[in-house]
TrEMBL record:
InterPro entries cross-referenced by the UniProt entry: Ig_CFAP47
Protein name, per record: CFA47 protein
Pfam families in the record: Ig_CFAP47
Gene: Cfap47_5
GO biological process: sperm axoneme assembly
Species, as recorded: Cochlearius cochlearius
PANTHER family for this protein: CILIA- AND FLAGELLA-ASSOCIATED PROTEIN 47 (PTHR45912:SF3)
Positions of the CFAP47-like immunoglobulin-like domain: 82-226
Cellular component terms (Gene Ontology): cilium
Length: 256
């Protein structure tokens, strides 16, 4: 759209509205161009107008008399659509502390192909094997029968740096399977999640998948670590009334 005839006083601010209403899950690009001129039609004097630098020449309009007739600002805008998050049930990964569990998480990326349904969905089932940190982005390629390759990046995001420090080394994620339905265009990604907690906890995370052509899908996850199993039972037999009974046992530290 064009916004003309807007007057600005010295030091005044101008808010420029930008409306984004995507109809497909792809990135849209545009530029916001602002051209300012003096209200009285006069030029800004500039002594070295003949020796404008290359960058300055692209942002000013020079008049015949050597003054500056107008100044132009160009701001690129990238519109990245995000799939609407309905009330999705989190994929729950539950494990006892000091144990290790593997779970399979399947996510559906709808709306990848123009015209496909734009509502996301997620399912949870079982099995895995990985040692990769959960916060490292990786690239995924999905190819349909027409040799059209769609690339994705994925990562686990946490609500805070504190939660990230707690879960980062305890959760591993690895992509095991990817496929694309030719008719609907829905892309299915199957991840294997490894969870090896060292103490009881309950933390949330978000599996974020981004298409390199634009479009973001987010799926909630919940990691629950329950109380660990009892290591052993210590029995102390009394040797008599008002007499101390002592039993010794060894503790082994898991770290230095």
């Amino acid at each position: 759209f064009y916004l003309t005839g807007t007057r600005l006083a010295p030091k005044e601010k101008l808010d420029i509205p930008v409306l984004f209403m995507p109809d497909t899950m792809k990135m849209y690009e545009a530029v916001v161009v602002i051209h300012v001129m003096r209200e009285n039609g006069e030029n800004w004097p500039y002594e070295d107008s003949a020796e404008f630098s290359k960058d300055l020449k692209s942002s000013v309009t020079v008049a015949e008399n050597g003054g500056i007739q107008g100044i132009v600002w160009v701001y690129p805008v990238h519109g990245i659509p995000e799939a609407p998050q309905q009330k999705l049930v989190p994929a729950v990964v539950r494990c006892r502390a000091r144990q290790r569990v593997e779970r399979r998480v399947e996510v559906l990326l709808t709306g990848v192909v123009p015209g496909a349904n734009a509502m996301p969905a997620t399912r949870n089932s079982a099995m895995v094997n990985t040692n990769k940190p959960a916060n490292v982005q990786e690239e995924v390629q999905v190819t349909d029968g027409f040799s059209t390759t769609v690339e994705f990046l994925y990562e686990l995001q946490y609500q805070s740096n504190e939660i990230k420090s707690q879960l980062g080394a305890l959760v591993g994620m690895h992509l095991m399977q990817r496929e694309r339905d030719k008719e609907s265009g829905i892309v299915t990604l199957v991840f294997n999640i490894v969870f090896a907690p060292n103490k009881p906890m309950r933390n949330e995370a978000t599996l974020v998948v981004q298409c390199t052509t634009g479009g973001i899908w987010k799926f909630p996850m919940l990691f629950i670590a329950t109380e660990p199993e009892v290591d052993d039972v210590i029995n102390i037999e009394a040797v008599g009334l008002n007499k101390e009974s002592i039993v010794g046992f060894k503790l082994t530290s898991q770290t230095r």
